From TrEMBL:
UniProt GO cellular component terms: endomembrane system
Catalytic activity: S-ubiquitinyl-[E2 ubiquitin-conjugating enzyme]-L-cysteine + [acceptor protein]-L-lysine = [E2 ubiquitin-conjugating enzyme]-L-cysteine + N(6)-ubiquitinyl-[acceptor protein]-L-lysine
Protein name according to UniProt: RING-type E3 ubiquitin transferase
Any Pfam family the entry gives: zf-RING_2
Pathway annotation from the record: Protein modification; protein ubiquitination
Primary enzyme class: transferase
Organism the protein comes from: Genlisea aurea
Transmembrane residue ranges: 14-35, 42-61, 81-102, 138-156, 168-189
């Protein structure tokens, strides 16, 4: 679900696309013979950044705030949206100023810009998110995001006439590869698989034992009875004492971390 995706990560990538849009436009102005090609690329980058990624950013923001979806909270939602857009465009403009002022340190800045997977890795660990993104998306974005800096800093005959730096290019590949590798580890082995067990907080057990006082009825997700006499993995109990089939609740939590009955926020499974 969108609630598992890091808002900072998506905003980071949207800002990267905005910078690439400006870069393509600037290159088209400087190289008149290639203006049409660069202007076309800049236009598509602008569409991706200003329409698709901003809509995705808004969808993730709303998923992180399910209490805002009601009509009664419109004023509060509008205020928070204003803050969100102010921070986004403020960060975008500040980044342009910093790039201009510290252009001598372009390589470290570019390396820092390509740390966009780190917020998602941290978010996965904090919230114990289960498979927020498909591995194909992670690998595809990693490879495509590396293409331009590797051309600019790794190709001796790039059109920007930047001196090739093999060591920096290797460092970028290693840095991006390590981020993607951590995300894939989290996907296949758990979001906290590389965190020492001793420092992890105690985790809520959805398979706690049932007692005679608990009244078990139908699973509200599939509307079929819950057999408490079957194995414990067949029945999951939320902190608000609502019962569901294990498979039903697992699939539900892949979409939203709310109790299907009372809409209370659920802890990670």
């Amino acid at each position: 679900g969108a609630a598992k995706v890091s808002l900072v990560m998506v905003g980071h990538q949207a800002i990267m696309d905005a910078y690439l849009c400006l870069l393509h436009l600037t290159a088209g102005i400087l190289i008149e013979s290639l203006f049409n090609a660069f202007a076309t690329a800049a236009f598509f980058k602008f569409v991706v950044f200003s329409i698709f990624e901003m809509r995705y950013l808004l969808a993730i923001w709303k998923a992180h705030r399910p209490q805002m979806n009601g009509g009664d909270n419109w004023d509060s939602m509008r205020r928070e949206l204003s803050v969100l857009y102010t921070r986004f465009y403020g960060t975008l403009l500040c980044g342009i100023v910093l790039l201009y002022e510290f252009h001598r340190y372009l390589k470290p800045i570019v390396l820092m810009i390509h740390s966009f997977w780190i917020p998602q890795i941290v978010s996965n660990v904090i919230h114990d998110s289960r498979k927020p993104m498909h591995p194909h998306y992670v690998l595809g974005m990693t490879l495509t995001r590396m293409a331009f800096p590797l051309y600019a800093f790794g190709c001796p005959r790039n059109f920007m006439r930047i001196a090739a730096d093999r060591n920096w290019s290797i460092a970028l590949v290693a840095f991006m590869g390590s981020q993607a590798g951590l995300l894939l580890l989290q996907h296949y082995f758990g979001s906290r698989c590389f965190v020492p067990q001793q420092i992890l907080p105690e985790k809520y057990s959805y398979y706690r034992r049932l007692n005679e006082e608990n009244h078990v009825d139908d699973c509200v997700i599939c509307m079929t009875p819950i057999d408490v006499r079957s194995s414990s993995s067949e029945c999951m109990v939320t902190p608000c004492d609502h019962f569901f089939h294990g498979g039903c609740l697992q699939r539900w939590m892949d979409i939203k971390m709310e109790c299907p009955t009372c809409r209370r926020t659920l802890p990670p499974a």
